[in-house]
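step: validate -> pass
step: tokenize input -> pass
step: predict -> running
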Amino acid sequence: MDFLIQLFTDPLAFWNSHTLLIAQVGINSILASSMFVVLYSGQLSLAAPGFMAIGAYTSVLMELYWHTPLALNIAVGVLLAGGAGVLIGLPVLRLRGVFLAIATIGFIEALRLGVILNLPITGEGLGLKNPHADPLGGINLVLVSVVVTIFLVWRLTKGRLGSAWAAIRQDELAALSQGIHVARYKMIAFILSAVLAGFAGGLEAHLNFFVDPGDSEYGVTRAIQILTFAILGGSGYVLGPVVGALFLTSLPYIFQQAHDYIGVVSGAFLIAVIVFRPQGIVGRGGLALFRPRWWPRRQVRAPSPG
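step: predict -> pass
step: emit ->
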């Protein structure tokens, strides 16, 4: 609990000693927002790590070979991620639910195992060095990006686009009968999610001196982690996935005194949260601590006549 004690008693020292953690929370918050967009439109896509890898490798390669400015590197990475979103979305968005999830897993594994680990320019399996990274200087850019991302996504959900996504999520056939172009709106959500993930990838690469092509960075493990951010935080609200990212990223530090058993403690804590708050941390409704949903309800009897 020293982590939380320092946070509330000495915020300045906390900032200085956990700068990289705060930056990682910001990156994960943007990734969680990219997952929120597709979930809000009724799609279960796990393609975010693939788009993230496109943004990260594009940004670092442009810096290494062309020495272009960081803003341009990230912008090009975002554009390529959005373009890849179009190419991937066209064939797979006719799928729904778990079938879409499996198809997008195929995309990220094909990209990582078939392209990144085989091309000499991406370092193959050895990864890519990034000597121009700026871990401490990049945190301000990350924090500003988080605020702008949350605001933009919130504004989108409050407009016509958000209403169409919500209608598609609730009942796709009913939305179609109301004149909503379902395929177009789903594609917009998929591309926007790809753009946000590519942006997060470019930012994260700027924080690290080494781009690791491992599964925990751009593979299935990272995809499940991003999905967990959204589900645990509450996928029905813009701030839900962000809170989930904050919570899960900080969890190893909160329970660091568990040492070798930190995985057990963290796992038990996650199970407790999802059992007693199935709607997510930010979801509506109070704590189901004393009466979870699965607990038998009291039978209400109608008053007897006379």
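step: describe -> The CA atoms of residues 62 and 73 lie 6 Å apart.
step: cleanup -> pass
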